[in-house]
Design a protein that fits this description.
Elements lengths: L1 E2 L11 E9 L4 H16 L4 E8 L9 E7 L2 H8 L2 H12 L5 E8 L4 E2 L2 E3 L5 E3 L1
Antiparallel strand pairs: 1-6, 2-4, 2-5, 3-4, 7-8
């Protein structure tokens, strides 16, 4: 069942940060190890809610890694990403010639949301 959840861009509303990575299979493990270091740094920042790095099941996928992180607000995300150590580590990863990678990142708001539907004893359905 679709929930009525229009995109909200008001200050102080939660945001989702999504970053997709194009990287060869041979460089995945090294990149993931360094990503974990940067994610640990961000997880201690005010406003951080959670983050998951998704790895493609097929080496044929264009984007081998997808990071999805949730923040309490755009302002919290901006403050966290302004951190000098985080910026240095991000730039080092981007400039590392031994691990060529391309990424595309952005902040997103929910446009449409669905939830699982469960059956009730009377045969009707309820969203969970």
């Amino acid at each position: 069942m679709a929930l009525d959840n229009p995109s909200v861009t008001a200050p102080g509303t939660s945001v989702t940060f999504i970053n997709v990575f194009e990287i060869t299979a041979e460089h995945l493990d090294a990149f993931v190890a360094r990503w974990e270091e940067r994610a640990a740094l961000m997880s201690a920042k005010p406003g951080f809610l959670d983050s998951r790095l998704h790895r493609a099941r097929s080496s044929e996928n264009r984007f081998q890694l997808v990071n999805v992180a949730h923040w309490e607000s755009q302002e919290a995300w901006e403050a966290a990403t302004a951190d000098t150590l985080f910026r240095e580590r991000t730039e080092a990863a981007r400039d590392d010639a031994t691990t060529p990678i391309a990424s595309s990142a952005g902040l997103y708001d929910v446009a449409v949301e669905f939830r699982a539907v469960t059956s009730r004893p009377d045969g009707l359905t309820d969203p969970t």
